[in-house]
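User: Good morning. I'm curious how adenosine-5'-triphosphate would be positioned relative to this chain. Could you predict the structure with it bound?
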Amino acid sequence: MSTTPNGSAPAIDASIDVRGLTKTYRSPGRRGREVRALAGLDLAAAPGTVLGLLGPNGAGKSTTVKILATLSRPDAGSARVAGHDVTRDPAAVRRAIGYVAQRPVTDPMGTGRENLVLAGRLQGLCARAARSRADELLERFGVAHAADRLVKTWSGGMARKLDVAVGLVHRPQVLFLDEPTTGLDPEARTAMWAEIERMAAGDGMTILLTTHYLDEADRLADRVVIVDAGRVVTSGTPDALKDELHGDGITVELEDGTAQAAARAAAAVPGVVDVVADGRTLRARAEAGATALPALLAALDAAGLDVRAAGLSRPTLDDVYLARTGRSLEEAHRAATPAGRDTDVEEVAA
Ligand SMILES: Nc1ncnc2c1ncn2[C@@H]1O[C@H](COP(=O)(O)OP(=O)(O)OP(=O)(O)O)[C@@H](O)[C@H]1O
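Assistant: Good morning! Here's the predicted structure, ligand included:
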């Protein structure tokens, strides 16, 4: 809950308010084998905003979402969603949320319409209201033309839209989207991004989005929280996080030869730092890129190196991730051991 500046009275309640959440999984087969999924996680989302939860495999994103969706219990800490405590009032939380899991929840042997009507009935709508809501959602997600075809014949992008539509049947205030675009082709991803933007900006829904894609978070999230090993590494608006890095990125592509020679020349140019050579590409950073780039190009010319292309870029969330965790998100994914996830486990009691 947020407070007025003097801390006295509640101002606007956060739609999602998580404090000091911890969670450990224990494998019953192997005594003592425990996995600490959350180690004191804090996060908050204001109403009508998109919060991006980023982190490598195993960082604790899905565990967080499952606790917020009342599908799992925390060991300690507190979590409130739409003003309701997830452990004290899970029924109220469930009424207020939609949850779109990583894996599809729709029946591939049913039609799109049948899936939506069933979801509406399960949410307590009468038959007529469920049919009308299904029609509305089929239209809204641009899949009405396929409404009466079995979902197994739908494309991946259409099926993912149906998953999201199912999560919206009961008009939730807060929506959890767990990796909504993983596995989608670029066109389907872009279409899904437009939907997510429409839900947040148009419908005023609060959305917690977990993703592996930093460009996705940059585009959609009002605030991002980067988690690793069950803890928050950093958080803020994408722009504020990028601004903290200062300066510009410089990329130079060389005509021939390796970038090693260019790196030596670049390192001597005043203001050019963090020089990295990779094949024929040279990457560096500079506080004032517009001044440093001409000086760098002159130094390369003087060293007899031909340049094919050169450019400046603002820091990306990838740069933020690298600066904050010491490794790229991709590298972190590779390092995460898929075998680390146990399949047959029970939860450690709170
Ligand atoms: N049911 C479970 N039993 C045992 N360990 C689990 C279970 N679920 C998750 N874990 C472990 O808890 C840690 C956090 O997992 P979680 O799925 O929350 O991470 P994540 O950030 O969502 O990862 P991904 O991006 O791969 O979905 C990992 O070490 C994972 O192996």
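Residues 1-12, 339-350 have pLDDT under 50 and may be disordered. Residues 137 and 165 are 6 Å apart (CA to CA).
Let me know if you'd like a different ligand tried.
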